[in-house]
Structures are given as C-alpha cells and as structure tokens.
Write a structure and sequence with these properties.
mainly alpha, 2 strands
C-alpha cells in the first residue's frame, strides 16, 4: 500500500495567509497571533504539521536558548518551500518517526532565526 505524504506546499499556502510583503529585502511579518492559536489552526489543517511544528519549536528553544516567535514560525513555513528542517520534522511526524526528530533538531541554526 502506498503511503500518503503531506504536501508541504499545501500546508505552507494555507498557513501563509497574512504574511507581510518584503521591504528592502526583509520580510515584515507581524506577531499578530499567539503561538497556541497558530498551532491550533495548523492542527486543524494537519495534525502532523502541528506535531512537527511543536517539535521544531522545542528543538529551537533547546538549541538556541530562546523561544521562536509566531511570526518567525510563520515565516519558516512560508518562505520558498519552507524551512527544510521544519518540513523534515513535519514529514517525520507524519510518518511517526520520532527517532528522526532529534537529529533534525540538531540541524537548526540560531544565528538568523529558523534554519535556512
């Protein structure tokens, strides 16, 4: 039986509504939604995307020593094809591959927010 995969582009398209426009090469994304609300909406679209995002948030805070803001998570979902680490964590959550989450969390870069 073929496995069905989450299409990150679909999740990104649905969750990027309200993303600001670029100004002088910098995305202006307001923190207009509390993180629990954003995660709740994400969970309505895809429970695996919600679980993957929560794993990403936890790994980011552990690795970087600070929480990720809602706007930063929204940007990580919406930029291009999405942050590769975040998208891989969503896929791992979809496949229920908890063993993949730890190594993926180690790939998060803190210098400029979400990994690129």
């Amino acid at each position: 039986m073929a496995r069905r995969f989450i299409r990150p582009a679909l999740v990104v398209a649905m969750m990027s509504a309200g993303v600001g426009t670029a100004t002088a090469g910098v995305e202006a994304i307001p923190d207009d939604m509390p993180m629990p609300d954003y995660l709740g909406l994400l969970g309505q679209i895809s429970p695996a995307a919600q679980r993957g995002a929560q794993a990403y948030l936890l790994a980011f805070e552990q690795r970087c020593g600070r929480p990720l803001r809602t706007a930063q998570l929204r940007q990580a979902m919406a930029d291009g094809d999405g942050d590769p680490v975040l998208m891989a964590m969503i896929r791992a959550s979809h496949l229920r591959d908890a063993s993949a989450l730890g190594p993926l969390g180690e790939r998060i870069r803190c210098e400029q927010g979400p990994a690129r």
